[in-house]
User: Which sequence fits this backbone?
């Protein structure tokens, strides 16, 4: 019988584990079955359901770029039952993965534009996929600016990649930590993301802004972007809500008439403004 | 009923309470809980033999938590619930005015906690004849038969948690069944998931349940949960001489130790 | 297909049910036990409760059981073997004697489980199900099917609809190919007839509102205080959702025993606080009023938008099951006149 059961995950092997920050890890996952690997493809912005059998499933975005073929990556913070058991796994262990689900960042439509990425804390992973995707197709875009903030220096994730982006002449990286989160060696900025964004005052001319972060950061960042002249159609973000199925059936992740899993997770600010405040 | 309405009206008119919790006529000849905030609104307040839902449940809901003071039309089950909630530090005497109503529907006026304790003692727990018969039937069973009886009785459970949601004593912000790390109770409503859930709930209510029977009344598949609780209450009374809902100062048997506690379970 | 009209007398109906069970089909019908009528497996027509207006629970568990295996797994030292559910082996099931509202409920349920990614487990169960409904002679104070485009003699969702016309006979409407297959295999039991007007044989049920009006009203009242008012006495259980023929929300749960385990899908309800609770503690639908609003919007606004159908069939089961008399028809009527 051909497997068309939508609940059966792919079998994935944990190829590499990176400790990103306290309680935050990145898994690099490879398909155990060649056939699955050859059939699988995804686009930036999409997410999946990651299984630890016996514990359940947890929802995270695919944090790697589709331009990096042969594997997918996810970054998660230990919080609930599934993420805690994921964190106990070792390289070589097997987990389940269902996906990809959800919509995408429309990077095709961003050709010839400046890109402004704004991320906070553990919300860099969904952004990392689209950043690498765009950097791997660098010639398609004009200026690339990344503003990334975290509560403290130790909470910054993807430190190696931050260094890599920092070293690139074709990327303008600004990192910041919340006041009090700096350490003596800290060379970045100190201040909340919206404040730093205000100081940077990037031009909204021909620019797409992509914002991911905790609700409080999002709340204060949108007005700054508006002030800078960004139109609602040119500001993108990703939402998350509690999910079980990932494909619009289990009924819990909807915000008004849209399912975050099926119609999102990527939304423009224009779309967000039409949604009720249930996220 | 008129004396209850008069009392409720006066309390609201004199600003002695902000809210009266009682009953109104519902749909399809039912009665239902209602919240009255003005003397005029009290016109709709009713009390009759059908007003048996245990509205003490709402004392822990937002609407009552947000009211500075409130009154409640309280039949003996509600009075017992209030005393038990007070004993568990869930409500304060100064916030609540109890409009006492006997099993027969007679209004006995406002009760402070002391009077409520006296009232409770004169208003024994009501148990229907068919309930008594079922209890006798179960008591005559062997341990194995009892176990099988309850597994079978719980099997139609759909885990809608109406029993928990309707129970004034199930006020925990996070129920044990929702705790998943570790997962103490299986979530799925299969045979053993159901059994473990109801056993856990019964144990958490042992010595605290005031035997209003709301769990059974709210159950859409009519599981006799009230019987299970009643039998446990009887057991607690017999073994620990402890009964819930009679005093506002009370430590439930399972969370206290006294020198006279029997140790006959140690074998 | 065009509806085929027939007649069947009650002894022939008894034979039909016997033929079903003898041929290995599982027949589920309302059965009264300890005063409660529920769908249960029957062997003969004598087992069936024809009188009760609505069983406590709907017939949805025939296609969407309260708990169902969606996969199983075996853990070894360094691997996991996942076993699929063999949904080709599901039995042939006959739903018999359900009401037209129950039959109509399969349609919104199917719309949830179909879609871009098809739930093959649900689909296989539905494909194996034949629905033989009986029109309603009576309605009670909770029924409101005529307000949501249904009716006591509505054929939507049924493969065959029976309407009692005399003490001994039913008028038969063969609605679908599945229904026709039953007719073709049992032609000796049916008699020919012209179409008849069923109205005299059906319950009278006044229309209280239209679902289109509700849908329209919902456009402007998301922030209304009506949700707080209506949900005030809601106790926050899931009885309404679980007895509803059209509610399809579910949870996914793993259970392991030793090295083996099962992943279940089980009923869930938007009325529960934990339904939308994030691990962080944040809850997008924190108050019961928001959850009640979700229930109404899902059925009367979101489903019409997403699936071009309404998620309520007017059976009134939620109202009957509610411990605190949250009567959905009453609440919808309030909304209709806002």
Assistant:
């Amino acid at each position: 019988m051909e497997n068309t059961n939508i609940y059966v995950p792919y079998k994935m092997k944990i190829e590499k584990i990176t400790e990103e920050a306290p309680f935050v890890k990145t898994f690099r996952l490879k398909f155990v079955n060649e056939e699955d690997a050859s059939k699988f493809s995804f686009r930036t912005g999409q997410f999946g359901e990651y299984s630890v059998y016996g514990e359940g499933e947890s929802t995270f975005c695919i944090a790697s770029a589709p331009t990096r073929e042969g594997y997918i990556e996810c970054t998660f913070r230990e919080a609930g039952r599934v993420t805690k058991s994921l964190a106990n796994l070792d390289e070589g262990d097997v987990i389940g993965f269902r996906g990809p689900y959800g919509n995408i960042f429309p990077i095709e439509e961003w050709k010839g534009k400046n890109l402004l990425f704004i991320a906070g804390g553990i919300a860099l992973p969904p952004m990392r996929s689209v950043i690498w995707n765009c950097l791997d197709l660098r010639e398609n875009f004009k200026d690339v600016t990344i503003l990334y903030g975290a509560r403290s220096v130790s909470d910054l994730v993807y430190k190696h990649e931050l260094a890599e982006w920092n070293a690139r002449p074709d990327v303008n990286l600004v990192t910041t930590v919340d006041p009090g989160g700096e350490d003596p060696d800290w060379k970045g900025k100190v201040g909340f993301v919206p404040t730093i964004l205000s100081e940077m005052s990037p031009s909204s001319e021909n620019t797409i802004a992509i914002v991911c972060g905790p609700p409080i950061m999002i709340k204060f960042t949108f007005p700054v972007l508006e002030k800078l002249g960004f139109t609602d159609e040119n500001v993108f973000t990703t939402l998350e809500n509690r999910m079980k199925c990932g494909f619009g059936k289990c009924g819990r992740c909807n915000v008004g008439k849209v399912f975050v899993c099926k119609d999102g997770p990527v939304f423009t600010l224009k779309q967000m403004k039409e949604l009720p405040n249930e996220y | 009923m008129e004396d209850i309405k008069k009392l409720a009206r006066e309390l609201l008119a004199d600003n002695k309470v902000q809210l009266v919790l009682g009953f109104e006529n519902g749909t399809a000849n039912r009665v239902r809980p209602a919240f009255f905030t003005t003397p005029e609104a009290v016109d709709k307040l009713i009390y009759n033999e059908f007003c048996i839902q245990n509205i003490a449940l709402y004392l822990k809901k937002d609407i009552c938590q947000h009211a500075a003071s409130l009154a409640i039309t309280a039949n003996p089950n509600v009075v017992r619930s209030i005393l038990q909630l007070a004993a568990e530090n869930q409500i304060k005497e100064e916030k609540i005015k109890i409009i006492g109503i006997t099993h027969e529907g007679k209004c006995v006026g406002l009760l402070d906690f002391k009077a409520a304790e006296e009232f409770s003692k004169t208003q024994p727990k009501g148990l229907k004849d068919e309930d008594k018969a079922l209890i006798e039937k179960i008591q005559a069973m062997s341990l194995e038969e009892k176990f099988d009886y309850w597994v079978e009785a719980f099997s139609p459970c759909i885990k809608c948690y109406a029993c928990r949601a309707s129970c004034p004593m199930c006020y925990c912000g996070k129920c044990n069944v929702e705790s998943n790390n570790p997962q103490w109770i299986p979530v799925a409503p299969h045979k053993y998931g159901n059994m473990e859930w109801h056993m856990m709930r019964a144990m958490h209510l042992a010595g605290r349940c005031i035997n209003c029977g709301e769990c059974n009344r709210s159950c859409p598949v009519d599981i006799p949960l009230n019987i299970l609780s009643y039998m446990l209450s009887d057991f607690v009374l017999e073994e620990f001489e402890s009964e819930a809902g009679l005093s506002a100062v009370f430590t439930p048997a399972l969370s206290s130790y006294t020198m006279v506690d029997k140790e006959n379970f140690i074998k | 297909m065009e509806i085929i009209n027939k007649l069947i007398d009650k002894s022939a109906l008894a034979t039909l049910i016997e033929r079903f069970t003898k041929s290995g089909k599982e027949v589920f019908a309302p059965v009264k036990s300890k005063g409660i009528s529920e769908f249960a497996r029957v062997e003969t027509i004598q087992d069936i409760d024809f009188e009760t207006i609505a069983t406590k629970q709907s017939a949805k568990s025939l296609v969407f059981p309260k708990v169902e295996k969606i996969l199983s797994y075996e853990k070894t030292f360094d691997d996991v073997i996942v076993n699929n559910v063999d949904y080709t082996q599901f039995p042939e099931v006959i739903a018999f004697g359900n009401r037209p509202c129950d039959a109509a409920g399969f349609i919104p349920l199917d719309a949830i489980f179909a879609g871009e990614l098809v739930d093959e487990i649900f689909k296989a169960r539905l494909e194996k199900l034949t629905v033989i409904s009986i029109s309603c002679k009576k309605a009670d104070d909770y029924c409101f099917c005529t307000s949501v485009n249904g009716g006591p003699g509505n054929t939507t969702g049924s493969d065959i609809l029976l309407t009692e016309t005399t003490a001994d006979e039913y008028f038969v409407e063969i609605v679908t190919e599945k229904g026709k297959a039953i007719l073709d295999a049992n032609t000796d039991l049916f008699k020919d007839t012209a179409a008849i007007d069923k109205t005299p044989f059906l319950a009278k049920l006044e229309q209280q509102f239209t679902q289109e009006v509700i849908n329209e009203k919902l456009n402007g009242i998301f922030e209304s205080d009506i949700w707080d008012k209506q949900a005030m006495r809601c106790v926050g259980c899931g009885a309404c959702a679980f007895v509803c023929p059209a509610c399809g929300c579910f949870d996914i749960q793993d259970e392991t025993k030793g090295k083996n385990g099962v992943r279940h899908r089980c009923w869930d309800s938007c009325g529960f606080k934990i339904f939308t609770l994030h691990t962080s503690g944040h809850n997008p639908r924190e108050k019961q009023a928001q959850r009640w609003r979700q229930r109404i919007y899902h059925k009367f606004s979101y489903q019409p938008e997403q699936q071009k159908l309404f998620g309520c069939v007017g059976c009134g089961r939620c109202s009957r099951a509610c411990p605190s008399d949250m009567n959905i028809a009453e609440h919808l009527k309030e909304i209709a006149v806002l």
Notes: Chain B has ten helices and five strands. The CA atoms of residues 13 and 39 of chain B lie 6 Å apart. The longest helix of chain B spans residues 225-240. Chain B touches chain A through three residues (CB under 8 Å).
